[in-house]
Amino acid sequence: MRRTLALILILALIGAGVFWWITRPQPLPASALAGLSGDAARGRLVFWAGGCASCHADKQAEGDARLRLGGGQKLVTQFGTFAVPNISNDPTYGIGKWSALDLANAMIRGLSPTGQHLYPAFPYASYSHASLQDVVDLRAYLATLPAVATPSQPHDLRFPFTIRRLIGGWNWLYLRPGWVITGPLTPEQTRGRYLAEALVHCGECHTPRNALGAMDTARWLAGAPNPTGKGHIPNLTPAKLNWSADDLLTYLTSGTTPDFDSAGGDMGHVIDNLNQLPESDRKAIIAYLKLLPPRS
Predict the structure, then answer these.
(1) What is the pTM of this model?
(2) Which residues are CB-neighbours of 231 under 8 A, at least 6 positions away?
(3) Among 87, 114, 167, 240, which residue's Cβ finds the most Cβ atoms within 10 Å?
């Protein structure tokens, strides 16, 4: 009996050690951004491509008010409700004291400046593919935006999702390097892949998720249930989206479909964001969509 109990204890200690190792925060090295300097003009394009204002500004904000990133929106999921934080330049309530490396750790590794795991409701699973130069440029641009003295609200999550350490296990399972779409690509398709899979993070809405909330890359961009419970987010692969390149460009520019319907809701915000980018970027995204394998 003693031998059995001792063996159980040893196995439990080994299991706890393995869990602790797997779930540990893994920040970027301190030298990761060596030699990089930020350019706010380039960072402005990263800001709009990344859709920062769509979540971190007031949902009804328009014009310059979209640059007030005080947070406060609510994201309702099966795990609970996530409160979007203040990422304005306020040094107390926002990220005014964050360095470029702090922002890089958040976007690339899903970690706060204190080394705490962030929840993947913040789409770092996509942003992790962003270039470090783009992150440094984004930090330079965010520093030019207004400070908003609004405290971030706490999340309202169900147990055990309140245990942030578990997110380290999620990262170990699902935070993977590499692109979803591989193979020889033209420069335009390569740019489109970078935008769609990383900065614009199309997969976060248009790809189905598994029980743990990770994107099912085997059904990449094949459409997904709307988290609000209302309707379905469309399939972007050629199995369903058979619009011409010109039709797609019109839609991504004006929000008008070939049937003269118009984009609304969250997609309306995405189109507003994409309109801040050069037309060549919208065309690059279209070139990427055209090479997707059909998925039902």
Answers:
(1) 0.91
(2) none
(3) 87
